[in-house]
User: Fold this.
Amino acid sequence: MRRGVRVGVDVGTVRIGVARTDPEGIISIPVETLQRADDGSELDRLVDIINEFSAIEVVVGLPRHLKGTEGISAKGARRYARRICQRVPEVRVCMVDERLSSNQAHERLRMSGLSERDHRPVIDQVAAQIILETALEHERMSGRPPGTTIDMEH
Assistant:
């Protein structure tokens, strides 16, 4: 396993969930929920988080349909990942399949005893945590960095 903090991003149309790993890349920790802004200014805060933790990688969830196809949400996530890549070109930005991460996040919060109505402020952070856990598990199993790398040309 590579050492270094990874930042996980769950891209939504209203909110962006952010999580990070510890410096060893072993566990994931919720960080913040960012409100999407029409001018994209929430990206400034995301870049601050990436820099604050000296992240070696940003893992963006790729929302696919259950059959594996991509829709409007996936296109939006890819666009957002490219924007991150443009802002922090020195950091690897990749996409990881996030099918069912929101369902898993709700289930995790229910199991923790949090009522459904209290999920909204943290659900996106927990989804970002799950995206990171998926990426870390892939890296542990394969020995390779997870997901598909995004660059300016894609």
